[in-house]
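Record pair follows.
FIRST:
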Amino acid sequence: MIVNIFRPAREFVIFFISVFTVYFIESSSGFKFYLKNSSKANTIIQDSGKENMATLFTKIISGEIPCHKILEDERYFSFLDIRPINPGHTLVIPKKEVDYIFDIEDDLLSGMWLFSKKVARAIKKAVLCQRVGIMVAGLEVSHAHIHLVPFQSIGDLTFARAKSADDASLARLAAEIVSFL
C-alpha cells in the first residue's frame, strides 16, 4: 500500500510502503529499487548528499517545527509524541543525527538512557500508569529515538493504538510532566 509519494531530489522518488522505505533510483538503464539501509542505497544516498539533509527531529530541535518540549540538555531533547499510544507518550532523541540507535557512540547512547530515565520518572508522576515502557523501532524517522510510553498492561504497547492528540491537551500534559522534573 502506497502511503506517500514525493520527489525530494531529481535522482530519487521515495515510496513509503507499509513500514519499509524503498528508493527508486534513476539510472541510464531505467529505474532500480533498493530497500532502505541496503548497502547500495546507502552508498547512492551518501554520494548524493541526501545524508546531510536535516531530519524531522532536527527541525524540531531547531524550532523550525513546533513541539511540546519536556526536557533538553546539550546532548538530548525530549518532547511529546503528537500521535501518542497513551497520554504522556514521549520521544527522547540525541541532538546528533544518527539514523540507527545501535550506531550511536557508547557514551552518547548510555547518556541517552540516563536522560530517558529522568524523563520517565517525571512521566510516571504526571500520568496514571503502572509503568513507563520503552519502545525502539527506528523506522518512522531516520533519527534514532526512544519511545517512553506510559501503560497499564503489556497490550498497551503497540503502535496500532496511536492516535492524534489535540494541541491543548498536549500542552497541559507537557506542563504537568515538566513540573516533576
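SECOND:
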Amino acid sequence: MPEICNSLEAFSQKMKPVTIDSSKKAIAGARLASVIADKNEARASAVRYSRSRDAFAIELRNGVELLVPRRLLQGLTEATPAEASRVVMVDKGGGLRWPALDVDLTVAGLASGIFGTKMWMSELGRAGGRQRSAARAAASRANGQHGGRPRKQPVSA
C-alpha cells in the first residue's frame, strides 16, 4: 500500500529529481521523430462541421476525407450545433479541440475508429447491441423455432 505524505516537506523529500537530456544528439533525435511522425501519422489539413449531416468532415493531408457523426464523439453528444462548429485543429493537424466544451480528440484515433475512451467505446458497442430491428427480431424467432441458441460443446484437450 502506498505511503501517504502528510506534509509538503515529506512529499518533497520523497520526490526523485527528473533529468532532461537536452544534448544536441537528443534534440536532433526529437526533431527527426517529429518529421517522421508528420509524414506517417494521420493529420488533418481541414475540418468543418456540417449541420445538415450533423457530422464532422475531416480532410487529411493525404486527400482522404473522413465523415464522423457528432453523436459518436465523446463529449459532443449533448453539444449544440453552434458549440460543435467551434472546432480548432491543434498539434499540426494531429488533434481536434473544442475549447468551450473542453474536448480533445486525436485525428489518428478518429481515423482508426476510436471516438473516445475505452469506457465510451464500450458504451457505444453496448448501445448498438441493444438496437431492435425487424430483421433481428425475425432471426431471433427463427432461432427459437430451432430450439434456441445451440449449447456450447466442451472442448477436449
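COMMENT: Helices lie at 8-14, 24-40, 81-84, 107-111, 118-129, 134-145.
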